[in-house]
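Reopening this ticket.

The earlier resolution said the output was attached, but the attachment link was broken on my side. Pasting everything inline this time so it's all in one place.
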Amino acid sequence: MINHNVLSPDLLVIGAGPGGYVASIHARKKGYRVVLVEKQSIGGTCLNVGCIPTKALIHAADRVHEIKTADQLGISVGSVEINYQKMVEQKDRIVSQLSSGISFLLQKLGVEVITGTATFQNDQQVLVTTKEETLLFEPKQIILATGAKSKHLPISGLDLPNVFDSTSILAQSHLPRSLCVIGGGVIGMEFAFLFARLGVRVQVLEFLPQVLPSVDREVVLRLHRFAKQLGVQIINNAQVNAITAVQGQLQVEYVHQGINKSISSEWVLEAVGRSPNIDGLGLEH
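Inline output:
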């Protein structure tokens, strides 16, 4: 149903991640009439499928590593059993609690939150489509805070089962025996160390001459030492061409130093960076 009334708040914020919800709260405290539009979950990528859930899992993985290496401090423990499903459930509880807290704060301050998709009609008007209706806004000011989404390589096999990006891998409730990470940036290396500390055999394929290309060389060398201690294999200058399914495993085909090679793994994580999340916004208007 289309609502033909033109709504004119002082500020329309598109995107309820750390940029959008913080801006909404600040503007509301300044007395602005604020409408906040979010198509998925309050908190955006960072809270729901990024910084917070990964750090929750990393915290658990760090505790596992401390227990496994406790004998170096003269502390003897028995065998360590990992219940990854419980780790994921704890991660989900943390995310839900924080998201609920932000929603409560927005409601308390009087920020109108709409779950829907925003599209520019022209340089002044924005159409917001919800499950129930379509609303037309002509706000005095607009803030775009739509964040970023996972990039994807132009290779075949990304749609195969057990090929994940940084969002979908967080939804899994069990651990694989092996993981191939395509991309040695911050996100790829974070997941590589997380799964390695939980006992997964991890291999990283990086297209550039070094992982973490924007990080100081001395830091990268130190990271390589930690990776070696955990059994993480890093292959630089590797150009991935395709992913295929072979006898229940995933085969990652790549070129290294002019030679065609492949890695067999139970799971594959594609973590080759992020791009602006602007699809469907109608920015051409």
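Reporter confirms the inline version is readable. The mean pLDDT is 95. DSSP finds six helices and 18 strands in the chain.
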